[in-house]
## 1
Amino acid sequence: MSFDKSPPEIVEKADITVNSDDDNRRLSQASALHPNQDWTPAEEKALLRRIDLHIFPMLCAVFALSLLDRSNISAAYISGMKTDLHFNIGARYSIALLVFFPAFALCQIPSNLIIRRLGARTWLSFLITAFGVVVLGMGFVKSWIPMLVLRALLGAFEAGLLPGSIYMIASWYKTFETASRIAFFYTSALVASGFGGILAYGLTSIHVGNGMYKQSWRWIYIIEGLMTIAVGIASFFTIGEFPEKARWLKPREAHIARMRILNDRGEAEYKKVPLTQTLRLIRDPKLLLFCLQYFITSTSGYAIGYFFPIILNEGIGFSYTTSLILTSPPYIFTIIASLGLAWLSDKIRMRWPIIVFQGSVAIAGYLLILLPKIPGVRLFGVFLAVFGCQSNAAAVVAYAQNQTVGTEKRSMLSALMVTAGAAGGVTGSTIFRSQDAPLYLPGICVTLVTQLLLIVATFSMSMYLRRQNRLADEGKIGPLEGVEGFRYSP
């Protein structure tokens, strides 16, 4: 693996401006630690700001819309779809949730193989527009079977968005810059989840004529579908790209962006490799643990997302209107708390204590939903459960990305983890069954057990990785991940 500096012509033409003696001193110190570093902290800070502004706004918007489009079925369900499409018969609602995930799982790895070759802008904008068309079509179905078909198509088109986005974020940022940024990316989805209920309540006030368009739930799909299509078209002109395709960077900025990652992880630029070689990268057993972590967080996250309004309505006993409105405050709390803890994770340079803490909060929350009979206490439990389950998704992704070296391997890791997340979605969409109302005891018990498993698995793996770091420092084992100087960051 090469640790050479950038081509001489780039360095020679670069206009390196040192603003003060302090900048000179810090540049000398940095160069002693990293012989490839020939830029000032001020230059790096300015570049980071530019990358943030170019990568995140549209990426966050489309991810928020994707989660809104896949989870709005719960709001539509309690807004009249349950009876209009006869989803109140047997397990039809659970089946409608379930069919989203097989295609979602199968399309993860192919999508991440495509995105780097076509580019994020072309591929992601196509996917966004396509699932917007599918959501729009849901507003016109007249029976539950076509809804199942459209839910399956939605899963296929949404499959590439999350792993592709995570892959792109990890390609731009250093190890201890990722947690806060992935958390920020995920909170965009939490904003959609948090205000989705209020948006759905507003859209259900639309009534047109006396036919099927008078059925208020249809307008949730029609308006949100049109919004997604519009954003999909706009994203072709505004969405960010991978470093090697980023034409918006000046030569000097491109050099700094590349060398930052090379110095941090010893990671060379992306090169196309044969499919067989790419698939061999996934044989690392640590990847199974990372996938287990994400499976657990997805099981809990999808369960609370799909059944949150139903638990408020049928489980705790709030009215339809109150249930939709009450979906927002727990997510607002989650956004603030998860961003704060992600910042703390980058600050203390440790991931596992944050994951363990958030898993413990989720356990406490579900116990409060289950045990007391007072609605206010159970609602507080919902706050804790939403925070504990939803915030750990970003924490687990950052944890896994920080233990992985190589653009190709991280691409496979992103796809594998989101595939495991799809399996978690299958579990999460079936553990809360309508026949278990109002306590939903089986679903809560499954979630409690899985959160406990997440805590044990994360702690055990983290202690193992710390031991590997120590052995590498003592020279008792070879280079970690085959890269000299690399250390895990649990």
## 2
Amino acid sequence: MALTDATAFQLCMANAAMFMAQRKQPDTFQYEKCSEALEYYGQCLRQVTKRLECRDDCTSEGVIVTVLGLICHDIYVGSWTRWETHMKGLHRIIQVRGGYKNIDSNLALWASWYDVLGSATHDTYPHFPEYMNNLPSRLPGRTPLLEHIICKLMHENNAAMCPVINALDRIKVIADIVNARHHEPEFWRREDDLSPLHTIGPVAHILLSTPRLDLQTDGTIDSAKLFCEMTRLCMLILLAALKRLYSFALDEIELTTLTAKFSLVLSIYWRSPSLYQPDDALQSLQLWSILIVAALQPFVDRTLYVAEIRRCMHHMGIQSATDALQRSRDIAWVDVVCGMGAENETLLTAIDNAAQP
């Protein structure tokens, strides 16, 4: 896209200079001292600022392409203040154009993708109210257990459950795709593959748009909302790990932020046994959430996770960690991310050896 606009091409040159400097100085590279990259970036910024003052050019596709390039650059270098400024500008330009349906569909898709990539880093709400892509309402591939869980959640008729239901369906589709194809050469590296934008993007937007439970100030914890928050965070953590394999996530902040929030939810459950849901569907989903996050953290203290998994198993009458893992795999499981059995041996042993609640 950078080759379609002269101003955007300046940013292409900034990226080229930055990548070259990184290649020459992999251990000492500092973005803020890369003068050639900063010079091209400055030229781009000056040109786009001038174009934004022109009534006939300020909402052109060339300007949109350039702003998208600036946002991509900001994400790569982790300049989140600049990313916020450019995202607000892009949102305003698309509003003036009359909405995303009045711009090229490819540009709309990239705008949505960069929106959720940046928003996920600090778990903030997206700038755009919807993901700019046509989505099917019902997706194939539910297992009998997932079908049972979703039917039970829908039967509850709780508005807080709707995002969880929508996201679960899409997580299962992603799991099926990745499990079937992750072993293919270049699966994670194909630069012309837009499938992550069509699969990961929409579910990330759903989860980031879901109202948060303020765990710091809410005096009375609603068990249904707490359950939704746990499931929401689990799915975002899973997506963060997937994006890392795709090389879309370059900032450690995202996983750190999400994991810290998940641990806080888990500690509330630990202190308040009365919050446990007696429903088998909700218990299965709770066990699934904790197992996934625990499997993704092999190098940290998992004592709390193991204790909570053991307590879930006790409530559900599950005797072995292997059976608990299989039940979770029957919901949705991304093998290359969460482990395919042998990789989880240490976790399973810890669970089996944990004291009964």
## 3
Amino acid sequence: MRQFTRRQALSLGLGAGAAAVLAGCATPGTTSVNSAPTIGAASAGEKIRITYWAWLKDLQKVADVWNAQNPNVQVDVVWIPGGNSGGYQKLYSALAAGGGPDIAQVEMRTVPEFLLVNGLVDLSRYGADQYADLYDETLWNQVSFTGGVHAIPQDSGPMGFYYQPEILDSVGAQPPATWDEWADIARELRAAGGVYLESFPVSDASVFTAYATQAGARWLTAEDDGWVIDMTDEATLEVARFFDAAIDEDLVDTASTPYSPGWFAAAADGGIGACTSASWGDALIAGISGGEGKWRVAPMQRWSNLPDSFGSSFLGGSTAAVLANSNHPKEALDFAVWMTTSPEAIDALIEYSGIGWSPAKDEIGSVREGAGSDFFGGQAYNTEVFEPATLEQNTEWTWWPITQQSFNILSDGFRRKASGVSLVDAVATAENQIVQAFRDKGLTIRKADS
């Protein structure tokens, strides 16, 4: 991902106030915290408490491991709803009121939105750059803007192919190496007994986005004169054409979203044979009734006809972001780095919080280094599939300041597939609507071909 310079940040959309769009981070309506002097670390012997608002379950148990080792810097965790389920609104409200926690769980795709309201501390001012080599490059790039570091990667979701060998064996198939093979298997399963290979969620654009990311798409790019949007590139259109055909041929189940009650019922009854999903999907798939021993994991299928595509993609992922009103940003950074890179913290996050894939470059967690669970037949899928997948992701993908709004626009278009609107047309329409949404917020944007 491109590292934005301060000059570029000043040109990304709000004229004279553009520094507050991406470069500055402060409570809305106040002077940027990143323009003020840095806040010194606590003096020797001084006891402080920092707060962390997050939706991870039992995260306090992880913090307690730190607390036992750091009596002068204690971390208190406060549970909040998931980001778009109310958590972000609580954070925005707290920021606007001049308060809020020291650290907040913020999805990677939402970091730019918090920058848009000046809500995050540039952690490079407190030494974050020295930790870059500890993290997966793709994830570190997704929190780096304007020459700064605006959050610490907390977890991610490299993607693979979960499948039931018995169902694939019924048509003499092995896990697909390419999406074309995937389509062939889907046709054979439908013809043989009406089984769907997978479902395709028209109501959740994040899945289509992950597929386009793997294909090599790069929808938003920051240039010197503002944002450049390109959602009708060949990579994106190839993915849209592919799933237009899959839906038209009835090769995918569009009635049930992965991990919904209907999906679980179909997977348990043998009506769905596979799921292309993130590493964190293992815990959800393990909830399929009667599924123990019936599932395995293979590498994600590739776009063989797109030379600039990637071996895997990513779905989901969160950060530990230090909010603008923190009184202890240095200590908050220290805790965030410890929580996301130390072996004991990663093991605790997996045990207590069911964390997604570790962002640490060389530490996936001891439980994930061994054999898989009985549910997956003892397969060591974390080291066989997901660890290599982290090295085969699109490092050039960039999130943008209105990502969630863009997803909503794209999902609204995809829902019209049932009434005859193609995914290809929906993508093109969404591009125009996203351009307007940028301009409505005073952000400068142009299409790639203009």
